[in-house]
Design brief:
By secondary structure, the chain is of the alpha+beta class. The chain folds into 2 domains: about 60 residues, Ribosomal protein L9, N-terminal domain (Ribosomal Protein L9, domain 1, 3-Layer(aba) Sandwich); about 80 residues, Ribosomal Protein L9, domain 2, CATH 3.10.430. Helix content is about 35%, strand content about 30%. The strands form 3 sheets. The protein has a 4-stranded mixed sheet with strand order 4-9-8-6. A 3-stranded antiparallel sheet has the order 2-1-3. Strands 5-7 form a two-stranded antiparallel sheet. The longest helix is centred in the middle third of the chain and has 32 residues. The N and C termini lie far apart (about 85 Å).
Length: about 150
């Protein structure tokens, strides 16, 4: 007969649960894998109560973070940013516009966006482009990038 016990997960475990979840596992699995790797600990009534409080706190923080991200997405959507770059007479840029340059232009407008969040094709010519900004919680915003020729003296 298999002995079953309740444990609280200290880390996310694939196919078992998320951090803070209370799950039932076999005693052997707990003793041989979960406990030695500091992935779970035995769940008694005190620990279960603490876990519920912690989980509620984490959930409230996640909801607040989602609200902030939605607000940022709303503010970002449709923003027009302009980058001036050196280009040939035909409109071909001497140096492409990288996600880092786009992130820098957004930072100048007051948005804290990293280059890793910018999704765009490699921009190598003058014109107007639609840039996708990936935000947390799977949200996206579309930004209009206008690349104009830098007038040289």
């Amino acid at each position: 007969m298999r002995k079953i016990m309740k444990v609280i997960l200290l880390k996310n475990v694939e196919k078992l649960g998320q951090e803070g979840d209370i799950v039932e596992v076999s005693f052997g699995y707990f003793r041989n894998f979960l406990e030695p790797n500091c992935i779970a600990k035995k769940a008694d009534s005190k620990i279960i109560a603490e876990a519920r409080i912690k989980k509620e706190k984490i959930q409230k923080e996640a909801e607040m973070d989602l609200a902030k991200t939605q607000e940022l997405a709303h503010k970002l959507d449709g923003q027009v940013i302009e980058i001036k770059a050196r280009a040939s007479e035909e409109g071909t840029l001497f140096a492409g516009i990288s996600p880092a340059k786009v992130a820098g232009a957004l930072k100048e407008k007051g948005f804290d966006i990293s280059k890793n969040q910018i999704r765009a094709e490699h921009i190598k010519e003058l014109g107007e482009f639609e840039i996708t900004v990936n935000l947390a919680h799977g949200l996206e915003s579309r930004v209009i990038l206008t690349v104009t020729k830098l007038e040289e003296k």
